Amino acid sequence: MQKSRTLNLGTGLFVLLGFAALFFLTTQTTSRGISFGNAPHFDVTARFDNIGDLKVGAPVSISGVAVGRVNKIEYDSKVYKAVVSLRLDAKYNQIPSDSDASIFTQGLLGGKFVGLSPGGAETFLKDKDQIDQTQSAIVLENLIGQFVANFAKGSPNASSVDSTTAHTPHVMEKTK
Amino acid sequence: MFKEWWNSLSESLIAAGALVRFLFRLLINSPRAFLRMDLIVQQTYNSGALSLVIIMLSGLFVGMVLGLQGYQLLQRFGSEEALGTAAAIGLVKELGPVVTALLFAGRAGTALTSELGLMKATDQLSAMEMMAVDPIRRVVVPRFLGGVIAMPLLAAIFSMVGLYGAQLVGVQIMGVDSGSFWSQMRASVGIVDISEGIVKSCVFGIACSAIAVYQGYYAAPTAEGVGRATTSTVVTSAVVVLFLDYLITAAFL
Q1: Nearest residue in chain B measured CA to CA from A29
Q2: ipTM of the complex
Q3: Bigger pLDDT: A89 or B246?
Q4: CB pairs under 8 A between A and B
Q5: Domain annotation covers residue A36
Q6: Are residue A108 and residue A127 in the same domain, yes or no?
Q7: Does the distance separating the beta carbons of B48 and A66 come in below 8 Å?
Q8: Does A32 touch chain B if contact means CB atoms closer than 8 Å?
Q9: Do A105 and A157 have their domain in common?
Q10: How many domains are contained in chain A?
Q11: So what's the pLDDT on residue A175?
């Protein structure tokens, strides 16, 4: 009897572990995720004209150091912009409030991430603040479109091409 | 010469037919086997819980190699962040079910075959028939069902541990951003991918268990026969698993 009890226990543990693994695979590796636990953090929002294929969970970095994650992405139909909620680690509470947020691409095939570059203000970003200066994701199709349009205008020399590609994405836009 | 080929071809056709008939016999007897749940629990323990260590160790190393190789490959395109996606899809859809099935055939399948073969060689199965106990129902079907239950669970555990291994190498050692690793994985792995893995592991479980008990039940009742049956369990299981893997992958595309 004792032997069959340990046997049942072993089998039960095995089956439990198996189903835990299945649960992990279905919830943690797919988009139907459930997240557990959170370090101390604060949320700020930023509005972008175009976020490209930015995904929830993408890193937020300053000077290349990850300081947080994209928490939520919504569309604001009043101002026609994407509202991206950034969840920043609570220990980075000294980011100037006039910092600007841009969407960059990691590598050639990599995903998008949000880069913050610090401004010069004396006040710092707090929970529920909004980042005003934003720069949208570079959409390759738009760049090519501009390139082709410029080319057709009859100035196919290298300098004009350079100025198109170099300046277009750097136009800062003020929200509202 | 030609006659020999023809003979061996018809032999293997006959073997395949006998295996399929045996599988139907097992399936017909399966529902009633659940009345003796204790037997199935015991066999699930033998095939599943006892294979856990080898499955988890192999899964960890397969995942770690996947992390290393995937990182080396993706780094060339500057997209290390796709490592999570590559590892998850590779493990859940292919490596998890297939490697688990091969290990399962080697660890649990051989045990089933040699156990049944030895029971036959020592006339235990005939003795049961003498006592009007159907050995298929009492001995073979619980072993078959134990394997069928254990295999998908083992494959899921393999994939989970493998993913941990890939994460260990990719994120902890190679320095891929852990947020990108998981978020890109979540964005591109769908429920379809997971269910493909589950379907594969269930089918492989049925195939491997059926082959193992078939080989054991029809083993020649000698020491040599049991040895040969054990060998052919591993060989047949491997070939059948890889063949079915191609079929299921094609069906899911």
Answers
A1: B186
A2: 0.78
A3: B246
A4: 125
A5: no
A6: yes
A7: no
A8: yes
A9: no
A10: 3
A11: 45
